[in-house]
Each structure stands twice: as structure tokens, then as C-alpha cells.
Write a structure and sequence with these properties.
Layout: H1 8-67, H2 72-85, H3 90-102, H4 106-118, H5 123-139, H6 144-153, H7 158-171, H8 175-188, H9 194-205, H10 209-222, H11 227-239, H12 243-252, H13 260-272, H14 276-287, H15 291-299, H16 309-320, H17 324-337, H18 342-354, H19 358-383, H20 392-405, H21 408-421, H22 426-440, H23 447-465
Helix pairs in contact: 1-2, 1-3, 2-3, 3-4, 3-5, 4-5, 5-7, 7-8, 7-9, 8-9, 9-10, 9-11, 10-11, 11-12, 11-13, 12-13, 13-14, 13-16, 14-16, 16-17, 16-18, 17-18, 18-19, 19-20, 20-21, 20-22, 21-22, 22-23
Amino acid sequence: MMIEMTSPSAKTTTATASSRQRTQRPLSLSLSRQRIQRFIAMLLILVGLWYFQTFSYLSNWRAEQHLKVDHFDRAENALDWSLFFRDRNPETYRLRARLNRKLGQYDLFSENLEQFAQLGGDPLQARREEILARASGGEAPALMEELVKMLKNQEGDADEVCSAFANGFLVGQEYNQAFVVIENWKQSYPEDPRPHYTNGRVQDYLQNDYVAEQEYRDALAKCESHYPSAFALGRLLLETQHPQEAIKFFSRCLAMKKNGAAKVEIGKCYRQLGETEKAREVLEEAMNLPIDELMASYLLIQEIPAGNPAAFELGSLELGAGNNEAALKFLNIAYEADPSNLDVRYARAIALRQSGATEAGSAELQAVNNARTALQKADKIIDGINPVHPYVEERLQVGELYLNNGSLKTAEFWLKSVLAYEPTSIRAHELLSELYTRKAKRDSLFLKEAEYHSKTANRLSAIQQNTTPTE
């Protein structure tokens, strides 16, 4: 039997080669594993980017759908989520601009539109949004050519174009033009609740209660959660002495995240029904809300609140119940929030007299009576104004009477209607500057408006006198 002999050097060589193979194999496996890990990491990054971009897109889509039925609180929430998923999505800022335009927050509108442009948004889309903002702000009559072009070329959402121009014509009291747009809007978008709501508000203003009520009901038939229609219908029913039915429609608005406005109105309904404890309970809930949240709840249903509605209603309730000290406490809060509100001043004057401050209460009652006499003069002037004709001087008189004796909101409406017909009215700009200066004492945001109208009045006066305007 032969035994194969291997030299020591051969053994060493074999062992070394074997060792090298064992070393190279784990190194090769390690490199492969690193490549796989890098690939998976890149894949996860791409999936993550797709995931966040997709969810940002979906959130924007949801926001746009909410805006089409005036669910402003839900639209705002969806846009917040869109920014969470992708904070540099230009479309998110365009939709935020549209939301803020609808809420009348034009400073935020301009800021959002600027962000849209900075992130590479389409300049044509930005221009369309600017036109819609100008139209809804009261410049619709001057933008008729743009309206025809946008509807003909289907630039942007035609329903949004109709909405902006219809509201703009109403701001300028161009009712005939507004009715034409609203009718076309209804025919082109038969499932849209907004044209019915818009027409309802016009008929409400013109005191055509039956037509207004029917329009609100038609809007709710198309979208039962159209909160502005539900609130407006509830308010109309309350004003026409149907508080029990009004509660049903105000209650729909309780589904909103910010529902303080609905609670105040429900409290008014219970008060009219004589259910004092129920009224007090719901009004106290509204009173305990932060004032900014309470005011926002009105804006979200397209109402413009004045002062502190919860404090006034709670004060009036306590006054009617004979709780004079409690009444005066709340009415003082309401008065500080809106000292030009004659209803607040009257109720507070009664509370002062019944709390022992007879002289102060009587003096305030006399001042209120004087103001109401002045406003009766304003009402007579209004009765003689044809809504489709300028009557600039008469509008100016009404605006000044309300500025000095009544609601600043009503004064603002009439003074702006002057500018819709005569943009160069120096007196209108002067009075608006005074109005916004008063408002700025409670909200500094109005300082810009006050400054704008003051400078405009100076510039127009200088042109008239051929001198240099003062700053």
C-alpha cells in the first residue's frame, strides 16, 4: 500500500490558500450586503417621497372639495395636513390663498399667493386668483371683460369664477348683473348649493323672506351640511318668530369644529322660548370660548360678527331675569367690544339704571335715542335709493350717519358702495380712514386700511388742488 507523502511547504501553501479563500468570501458577502442595504435605503427614500407627495396631493384635493361646499374649517384642516406631508407644495399655498379670500382675510391671501409664486407656481394661476380676489372685493363691474374671457376660455374653475363675480356684484350693489351670474351658475352647476345660498342672502337683504327661505332650503337639499345656509335659515326663522324650528338648523352647525356662533344663536332661541336655564347653559359655553375662536366661528359661516355676541346675549338674558349685577358685568364686556352698537348701549343703560346708577343710565338712554333719531333719517334716505343707480351723495350721507351714530359695519358697507361708483370720492376715503382708525384701537390689523384711505384722500385732494400730497 502506497502512502502519499506531502512536504511541509506544500501543506503550508495549501493552508494559506484555504485561509485566503475564507477571508475573501466574507468580504465579498459584506460588500454585497452593503449594496443591498444602500439599494433598500434609496428605495425607502423614493417610496417616502412618493408617499408624502401623494398624501399632500390627496389633502389638497380634499381641501378643494371642501371649498366647493363652503366647509372652510375642514378645508383649513386638510391644508394643514398637506403642509405636514410636503411643506413646499405650491398648490397648497394657492388653495390657502383661495380659502383666505373667501374668509375676507386679504392680507393672508396676498401672503399665500406670494408663497405660491416663490415655490414655482404657475403665474397664470396666480393672476386668475388675483382677478377673483379683486372681483369678490367689489371690483366686479370693472372686470366684466375678464369675466367673459374666463368663462369663455374656461380658465380656472368656472364655479369659482361665478362665485367671486356674483359676490363682487353684490358688494357693489349691481343686483341685475349679480342675478344674471347666479342664474347661469345654477344652470351650469345644478348640484352646487352655493348659488342658492348667495341668492338667499340677496333676497334676505331685500327683505323677501319667503324667497330667501326657499333658496336656503334648496341649498340644504343639495348639501345638508352647507353650514352657511343652515345658519342663515336658522337666523331667518328666529327673526320671524319660529325659534323651535330655528334650533334644528343651528344645531347642524354644531358639527363644525368651531361652533360658538351656533351656540349663541341656540341660546337666543331658548331665550325666546322662555327656557332660561337652557339658554344660560349654552350661552355660558359660548362665553367661555376664547374670543378669537368665537369670532372665527362666525367667519366660517360667512357672517361678520360685531363686538362680543355671547356677552351681549348673556347680559340681555340676565337683565330679563332681573339679575342686574350679572347683566351689567356681561353688558360691560359687550360694550367694550363694540361701543357703537345701539342695542348693547340700550341694554347697558337699562342695567345701569336698575343697578342704582340712575343718572349715568338716563344719560346713556338719551344718547341712544338721539342716535336712533339720526338713523331714522338714514333709513329714509335708504328708502329713496335705487340699488341699481349710483346715488353717490345719498350713500355718503348714510355712511356718515352710521359712522357717527350706529354700526361701523353698516357704515363701512355704505361708504364702500360710494367707492364702487366713484373711486375718487375724497370724502368717502376720509370717512373710511376714520372708521378703520377706530377699529384699529381693538385690532391693529386695521391700521393698514386706515393708512391706505388716508393717503388716498390726501393724494386725490392734492390732484384736485394741484399740490403735493402730505404723508
